[in-house]
Amino acid sequence: MFSAIARVFASPDLRMKILFTLGIITIYRIGAFIPAPGVDYNGVQRCLALGNTDGGLYSFVNMFSGGAMLQVSVFALGIMPYITAAIIVQLLRVVIPRFEALQREGAQGQAKLTQYTRYLTLALATLNATVLVTMARSGALLGCEPGEIIPDDSMPVILLMILVMTTGVAMIMWLGEQITERGVGNGMSILIFVAIAAGFPGSMRQIWVEQDWRVFTAICVIGLCLIAAIVFVEQSQRRVPVQYAKKQVGRRTVGGTSTYIPIKVNMAGVIPVIFSSSVLMLPSVAMQFNQPSPGEEPSGIFVFLNQYFDGAHPVYMATFFLMTVGFTYFYVSITFNPNEVAENMRKYGGFIPGIRAGKPTEGYLAYVISRITFPGSLYLGFVALIPLIAFVLIGADQNFPFGGTSILIMVGVGLTTVKQISAQMEQHNYEGLLR
């Protein structure tokens, strides 16, 4: 391992990129602990010490901010507005023909979609900052008394907090783009990885303190086996062979090459888990803002949601699993278009051996996608349930490190980054990161 690290830093160009990336990560983590203007830092720490923040409503969003949200810092919103905006823009490609046309225009169209994503990110950040400041002002965010987090709740202070938190999201976007252009890996993915990894030691320490060493050891062993299984599934793919016919261009014969279409078992990535988690948060949000008055009898729907959608009930787990499976099929259907792939193959003289071009190729690709998505959706549903199962068995919170979105993102980003570093090393000395 040390020899691999030494080979990485032996290349001056790659060394500068890695150091630049580490510098950006340091700035990002420092910003997660700088309180927003108007926030009483000591009051925030007192509220956090009360322990009223555990639960699905805040832990999911707080995980993507690296703990900054519950610190009410300048980076409190984290990367979540950008993730939401990127997903919305991608989904709008199915609804708005203009977005689909931009996607087909190549680099210029993609740059335009990126610009739309930035604008939508700032709009969502403003909305999220308003909600967050309102909850912090009322004490609902950390379960403390009103005014303890924000002593001065005058309108200029509130507007300044919203402005600073929205600017923090813009700053995070800029930092991610700097990593993409001048560092190593995809900048936004790296920042998400860092935000999730920042809470990993605290989660492991919580398990060590609250459980005995046997449970801690068992969790570590199961976690390592789970990481190995996720790496295996994420690297697995179905390769559909494609043959290109020979063409006579002047005196030369071109074409006749063989290639393949790589279809991953998990084509949807972590998006279906985020979809399912976000949708199932809505009942919790509704209960937070519709608490019955003292002495008032709670309504039937309130009792139903409180009983069956608390995160540990089998009905909640079954709903989460089925929604993850359904969203996996939905997301794959909008990101992989068999008709478009078949048309491009026909246009350039490609065909699948044994399958006629045109409609038969489209039907064959749709059949393969449907078959390969089934185990991928079950895999995502199982991994998404691991934090909920851990909550039932050992009382862990939804920041449980081995499972759900956290482990999927960490492993996925880690694999992609290692591949990019290895590719850059091969450009310099023909030897990758891993021998």
Automatic annotation (TrEMBL):
Coarse class of the protein's main subcellular location: membrane
Keyword entries, A-Z: Cell membrane, Membrane, Protein transport, Translocation, Transmembrane, Transmembrane helix, Transport
Keyword Protein transport appears in the UniProt entry: yes
TM helices/strands, residue ranges: 18-36, 68-95, 116-136, 156-176, 183-201, 213-233, 315-336, 377-394, 400-418
Subcellular location, record wording: Cell membrane; Membrane
Entry-linked SUPFAM superfamilies: Preprotein translocase SecY subunit (SSF103491)
Any Gene Ontology CC annotation: plasma membrane
GO biological process, one term: protein transport by the Sec complex
Membrane topology term: Multi-pass membrane protein
Subunit structure: Component of the Sec protein translocase complex. Heterotrimer consisting of SecY, SecE and SecG subunits. The heterotrimers can form oligomers, although 1 heterotrimer is thought to be able to translocate proteins. Interacts with the ribosome. Interacts with SecDF, and other proteins may be involved. Interacts with SecA.
Stated family: Belongs to the SecY/SEC61-alpha family.
HAMAP family linked to this entry: SecY
Function: The central subunit of the protein translocation channel SecYEG. Consists of two halves formed by TMs 1-5 and 6-10. These two domains form a lateral gate at the front which open onto the bilayer between TMs 2 and 7, and are clamped together by SecE at the back. The channel is closed by both a pore ring composed of hydrophobic SecY resides and a short helix (helix 2A) on the extracellular side of the membrane which forms a plug. The plug probably moves laterally to allow the channel to open. The ring and the pore may move independently.
Protein name: Protein translocase subunit SecY
Encoding gene per record: secY
